[in-house]
Amino acid sequence: SALLLGKGFVGDRVFGGFDTAYDGLPLDPVSGEVGGDSAPTTNLLGATLLAAAGVDPGEVLPGTPVLEAALA
User: Does the pTM of the predicted model rise above 0.85?
Assistant: First the structure.
């Protein structure tokens, strides 16, 4: 779990979900809704934080998507 707040992030939203074993459910990185191709990862979080800071995440984490729905 992570709490993201501050300038550049969309507020009042929850992204993703967990199964009964508390494993992350697959997440669509564009909408933030459950039902994508892969579970959220630390790389997804890192790429999203880099994008929010104005850094191209592709240079640091090539091929890692950004949780676009979390960015304002």
Answer: no
